[in-house]
Specification:
The chain has eleven helices and eight strands. The protein is an alpha/beta fold. An eight-stranded mixed beta sheet has the order 1-2-4-3-5-6-7-8, sandwiched between helices. Helix 1 (38-44) crosses helix 11, helix 4 (127-142) packs across helix 5 and helix 4 (127-142) packs antiparallel against helix 7. The model has no long low-confidence stretch (mean pLDDT 96). Bound molecules: D-malate. D-malate binds next to loops. The site of D-malate has 7 residues, from loops.
Length: 268
């Protein structure tokens, strides 16, 4: 695994790479970092070049102002792809990483060979969710830990918590490293993101949708509904998992993504 610090705007974006050949980009979710994909990087790099990026304000990447829009994050991803001279990629986005992948696909469609929304949605925030974001911003400004610990626990299916305590610990440790500025900037970016429903309706690339039936953040029914609007899709439904399939069910999810990416590149 090689670490890189790539110039972007007035700072740097950190990412790790492993493997050779056709490219898969992995984008973590809110309060995550490349480390969330540890297992995936090792599995996928046997067949592909994997680039796992720390999005702005997360992991070892810098913050770039008061708000990180999904478009700004997509520009950071673009800077990384340009740096490695990647022309085509399968992009996998976990939750907020999925919002970024959709913003990227809108702005830079020529790069996308396939797109996986991993517990993510093309729908914008509801009015209620926007209010939750504003409340969260206030709490983070007072004490980020008060927000982070319960938020991370909520990403796992309740019944899984006792079986995968190490994963819960790992996700919490990663989240606690996120600077308050990065947390607030991402909350604003997610709150203000536009709908990407038209993009997925008319997508020229194959899509994979991974849904956890026990997801407490993005309800199963809503994600299933979005599945119906996509024509060229593969769906993976995780019966017993929540919003963190890569930690709750790494084998099944990495296997499905490897297969999906293989198919995308063959169909190219
Ligand atoms: C995430 O996991 O990235 C976030 O929970 C997404 C969101 O809050 O919409």
């Amino acid at each position: 695994m090689i670490h890189h610090h790539i110039p972007f705007l007035n700072g740097n974006i950190h990412c790790v790479t492993k493997g050779k050949g056709r490219c898969i980009v992995l984008l973590h979710g809110f309060l995550g970092s490349w480390e969330i994909w540890d297992y995936f990087i090792n599995v996928l790099s046997k067949s592909f070049k994997v680039i796992a990026i720390d999005l702005p304000g997360h992991g070892k990447s810098d913050c770039f102002g008061y708000a990180h829009s999904m478009e700004l994050m997509a520009d950071a991803v673009h800077a990384v792809l340009k740096y490695f001279r990647v022309k085509k990629t399968v992009m996998v986005g976990h939750s907020m990483g999925g919002y970024v992948a959709l913003a990227f696909a809108k702005k830079y469609p020529e790069y996308i060979t396939g797109l996986c929304l991993f517990h993510s949605t093309a729908y914008p925030d509801s009015e209620e969710k926007k209010k939750d974001r504003n409340r969260a911003i206030k709490i983070v400004k007072i004490n980020p830990k008060l927000f982070i610990r319960p938020m991370i626990k909520n990403l796992f299916a309740k019944n899984n918590l006792k079986y995968i305590q190490n994963e819960v610990k790992k996700a919490t440790q990663i989240a606690l490293q996120t600077p308050p500025q990065g947390i607030v900037a991402a909350l604003i970016g997610m709150r203000d993101r536009p709908s990407s429903i038209n993009l997925i309706k008319d997508a020229h690339f194959p899509m994979m949708i991974i849904i956890g039936k026990k997801d407490n953040v993005l309800p199963y029914d809503t994600l299933l509904q979005q599945c119906h609007v996509i024509s060229n899709k593969t769906c993976l439904i995780l019966e017993y998992d929540g919003h963190f399939g890569m930690l709750e069910n790494p084998k099944a999810t990495s296997y499905a993504i490897r297969k999906f990416a293989g198919k995308c590149f063959t169909a190219q």
